[in-house]
Amino acid sequence: MALKIEDYAMIGDCKTAALVGRNGSIDWLCWPRFDSAACFAALLGECENGRWLIAPKDGPVVVSRRYRAGTLILETEFQTKSGRATLVDFMVPGDGACLVRIVVGQQGRVDFRNEFVLRFNYGATVPWVNRLDDGGISAIAGPERVVLRTPVTLYGEDLKTLGEFAIEAGQSIPSVLSYGPSFQDHPPQIDAFDALERTQAFWREWSDRCPQVGPWTEAVKRSLITLKGLTFAPTGGMVAAPTTSLPELIGGVRNWDYRYCWLRDATFTLLALMYLGYYDEARAWRDWLTRAVAGSPEQVQIVYGIGGERWLPELTVPWLAGYEKSSPVRIGNAAYDQLQLDVLGEVADAMFQAGKVGIGLTDRGRALRPIILEYLARVWRDPDEGIWEVRGGPQHFVHSKVMAWVAFDRAAQGFAAEGSSEAARHWRAVADEIHAEVCERGFDSDLDSFVQTFGSKRLDASLLLIPLVGFLPPADPRVKGTLRAIEEKLLVGGEFVLRYEPENPGDGLPAGEGAFLVCSFWLVDNYILQGRYAEATRLFDRLLSRRNDVGLLAEEFDPFAGRMLGNFPQAYSHVGLINCALNLSRKACPAEGRAEMGPPVTVEAGQI
């Protein structure tokens, strides 16, 4: 029986990540990058598609787990009838590619089994396995090689590598898995215990810089570490999630590959990091952005590869059955070719906020700014696929127009601050034109609410962002009416906000999905802006309780089945958590008419 999505935890090295189940099985790992082909793919298929299991031979009686404080080092404790032992899992940041597993005896004696099933190419390719002179085993298929070194005696059976061992209190047994090209020398041996110390020091040095965020500090720190783990250190790019094709509905077709850098997701992640004082990551992302979007503004994409790659063709993997038979399994994402006007607004806001804390534009970024603004000035009236990347054809999404307004509003403020009054007046006029059109065509007086698209009667959770980005003040009757309408039609169980009305969604796909968690966090932020602090706190605490036992969130939650859905862990969900905690810890900023973001010592008032 497949584990639930929330039964997994993530480990990573800021280049890629692995998912470790409560049962001690690593069921997902792409090496050497987030977007590489998986060598453990049981998450989306069967055990035969690749996994690495280390678990008590006769099964545990009780399993508990936790991350070491301030790190991405996972500890899974197995309590059996005969004893207690802890499995320590981590990946080593820095040069090379190593995954380390250490079994530590705590009490009595526990018999373990080791089942190592390596399958390159998303679970399809059985490698050639041979023993090395140093006692390890090497597994090769084409250009790839993985080397496993452990004192455990291993043997081959049915195309698997198996082993059994016993551990007693005070003992520690390490296993080190290393990746490298098959045409080069074997990856060098490393000392697992030294690697553990170095990895712990890396994460704690980084996470200890997290400021206090009231009673939510630990939740924020865990989300912050998760976001750092989704960063591709060599380029500064940030993936939306380390997985592909975890379904938005069990058995459904809404299964997407999120191992890429969405400008929208990465921008919100940047802001969260920046509000918490992590400026090095913000600068690295700024530099990644200017490299990725360089060229013609008409060719700016909404999503790129982690190195800035532009071509992300969407393919299916027919030999993987999908998570709980949810197919197809997709590799690549066709959304790279969509027009989503909101993205440019989000990027403009991020650059504007970065400038306020001294992270200015590079020369290339400064040269790109007017070119991209001129492009957006030409196309903002066009229909687009919007924030939810619909596949039913372009429409005039209100959220997209609002975010286009954000781009010109921030540009006008930026040029004014730089003393370029003529440019500021020009872009302010464009912003005012968009504002007037959205208020005229995007608001339905019968519903007393803004609507999803011009002229429609449908609601959309993205309308919750209208006051958060400063398009209208929270006290505006139209904002209050929109909030009421969303509470009436999109809020499920007083906790979960649907993206849009589920009946006949009109997005080009069959109906059926969970509630997007970030939408519920947007609702919390709206409650804060309305001064409804008790409701905001109560809802936020309920959302915090939906994290799994190690503090992670997926993209969605099924309010009826009570389980997570979608790719995992999801950056967007953790960004929403961080922003809500910051807003709650500082309450509202009446002078600005919106929530203040970030610790007072580092950031002035800003937007989500």
Please describe the topology of this protein.
Blueprint: E1 8-12, E2 17-21, E3 25-30, E4 38-40, E5 51-56, E6 62-67, E7 74-79, E8 83-91, E9 98-117, H1 120-123, E10 128-131, E11 137-141, E12 144-149, E13 154-157, E14 160-168, E15 172-181, H2 192-207, H3 217-229, E16 231-232, E17 237-238, E18 261-262, H4 263-275, H5 279-292, E19 303-304, E20 315-316, E21 330-331, H6 342-356, H7 363-379, H8 398-417, H9 421-441, E22 443-444, E23 449-450, H10 465-468, H11 477-489, E24 491-492, E25 496-497, E26 515-516, H12 517-529, H13 533-544, E27 556-558, E28 563-565, H14 571-586, E29 588-589, E30 594-595
Antiparallel strand pairs: 1-2, 2-3, 3-4, 3-5, 5-9, 6-7, 7-8, 8-9, 9-14, 9-15, 10-11, 11-12, 12-15, 13-14, 16-17, 18-19, 20-21, 22-23, 24-25, 26-27, 27-28, 29-30
What does this structure look like?
By secondary structure, the chain is α+β, with helices and mostly antiparallel strands. The protein has a 15-stranded antiparallel sheet that branches. A three-stranded antiparallel sheet has the order 26-27-28. The protein has a two-stranded antiparallel sheet with strand order 16-17.
**Strand count:** 30
Largest sheet: 15 strands, antiparallel
Strand percentage, roughly?
Answer: 15-25%
Mean pLDDT: 90
Helical content stands at 25-40%
Rg from Cα = 25 Å
Tally of contiguous helical segments: 14
- Which residue ranges are poorly predicted, with pLDDT under 50 across at least 5 consecutive positions? 588-608
Shape: globular
- Decide which structural class fits the backbone: alpha+beta
